[in-house]
Design goal:
48% of the residues lie in helices and 11% in strands. The two termini are 33 Å apart. By secondary structure, the chain is α+β, with helices and mostly antiparallel strands. Helix 1 runs antiparallel to helix 2.
């Protein structure tokens, strides 16, 4: 187990069940997702069953159980976004990226996650990529956004 997981766990010295969610959030922030190995380690630390941890973690949309792409797309499918055409953007993203929600493309460049709401209903439809929000989407905007991230990725590897 990498030492940084233990350093995160040490920030919760009382080992209380109330620590579980903030602990999982910190671990996911550090590692990008919650692996089976990590969940087993957390369960042993808190003396909580793995099933209980999965039960809590799967209740919330923001926990991931597999690696994401270098650019993780979160598409809002809340009521306002749904009315504004989010379903069309889901289909468009799945077609362009050749993945379904919850998957990462073969190159590891993009991953897609459809979420219940990002809390920006007045700006619908909306996507978030690595913490950057893109609002009032149109098909043209979506294509430009994806292209800009593809170029950004090339620039990272060429420099």
């Amino acid at each position: 187990m990498p030492p940084s997981i233990d350093s995160i766990l040490e920030r919760f010295p009382n080992k209380q069940r109330e620590d579980l969610i903030p602990m999982l959030q910190e671990i996911q922030d550090e590692f990008g997702f919650l692996s089976e190995e990590i969940i087993n380690h957390v369960g042993a630390y808190l003396s909580i069953s793995v099933n209980k941890i999965y039960g809590v973690a799967t209740f919330y949309d923001n926990f991931r159980f597999g690696p994401t792409g270098r650019f993780h797309i979160r598409l809002c499918h809340g009521t306002a976004c749904h009315v504004a055409g989010a379903s069309t953007f889901i289909q468009e993203l799945e077609k362009q990226l050749k993945i379904k929600s919850g998957e990462t493309d073969k190159e590891g460049l993009f991953s897609l996650e459809v979420v219940s709401c990002v809390g920006a209903c007045g700006l619908a439809p909306i996507i978030e990529i690595n913490g950057e929000y893109f609002t009032q989407l149109t098909s043209e905007k979506l294509n430009d956004i994806l292209q800009s991230f593809r170029i950004k990725d090339q620039d990272i590897y060429e420099s």
